[in-house]
Structure formats: structure tokens, C-alpha cells
Amino acid sequence: MSYAFSCNATYPLRVRAVLGLVLCAALIMPATFAAAAPPVPTVDVNIAKFAFVPKEITIAPGTKVIWTNRDETPHTVTSNDKSFASKGLDTDDKFEHTFASEGDFSYFCTLHPFMTGVVHVRQQ
């Protein structure tokens, strides 16, 4: 008996089901075994009593800096070279920026220009 010309309709259905399962497994398996990316290092800077605390930090490239306004007065975080700038931050608002390249990044509050800080980005 030859199966090549079989009129049995369940054979193609079984083949399709197996192929469908193999395809699903092929799509799911890479996600299951993928290594989780290491967490991005973060550094916190508080805005309190009309100052950035700490005023200067040194970080490695790829580090995220998170500024949090702890004052009752709105503030901003704006780099001197305009590479990053926050909106006005109300109490407990946050602004974050990830520093990809090395350098010295001076910043200030546009509402209170006497408030200044510096982020030094260095390979460590």
C-alpha cells in the first residue's frame, strides 16, 4: 500500500500540527534561554535646600544619574552644553540621564543659576 496517494485527511493535519509546535518552540526557546542584561548602574543626586547633593560625582560610562527634587520649590537640571535638560521638577519629581561617553558635564538649575553641579564620566 502506498501512502503517497492516501486520501486520509488526518495525515496532513498531523503534519501541520507537528510543524506548528516545532515553529512555536523555535520562537519561544531563544527568549527562554536568553541571558538577562546586567542592570544599568545608577547614582542618585538630590536637590535639597537649593543645592545639588552631592555637588560633584564621578561615574563610569553607561551609568544613569537620577536627580530628585526634595525642595518645595521647582528646579531644573540643565547641562551647560545643552546635552541634557529637564522640565521644571516639582517636589519629588525625578529626572534621569544616562551618560554614554567620557567627559565632564557641568549643569545648573535654570530657575536658580547659582545652583550648579558636575558629573565626571571616566572609565574605571
Tell me about this structure.
The chain is 19% helix and 33% strand. The strands form two sheets. Strands 2-1-4-6 form a four-stranded mixed sheet, with no helix packed on it. Strands 3-8-7-5 form a four-stranded mixed sheet, with no helix packed on it. The protein is elongated and about 75 Å long. The chain has one helix at residues 10-33, and strands at 42-48, 51-53, 56-59, 63-69, 78-79, 94-99, 103-108, 116-121. It has one helix and eight strands, in the order αββββββββ.
Question: How would you briefly describe this protein structure?
Answer:
The chain has 124 residues and is of the alpha/beta class.
Mean pLDDT score: 85
Strand order of the largest sheet: 2-1-4-6
Structural class: alpha/beta
The counted number of beta strands is 8
**Largest β-sheet summary:** 4 strands, mixed
Task: List the uncertain runs.
Answer: none
SSE order and pairing:
Layout: H1 10-33, E1 42-48, E2 51-53, E3 56-59, E4 63-69, E5 78-79, E6 94-99, E7 103-108, E8 116-121
Parallel strand pairs: 1-4, 3-8
Antiparallel strand pairs: 1-2, 4-6, 5-7, 7-8
Which terms summarize this structure?
single chain, 124 residues, alpha/beta, Immunoglobulin-like, four-stranded mixed sheet, elongated
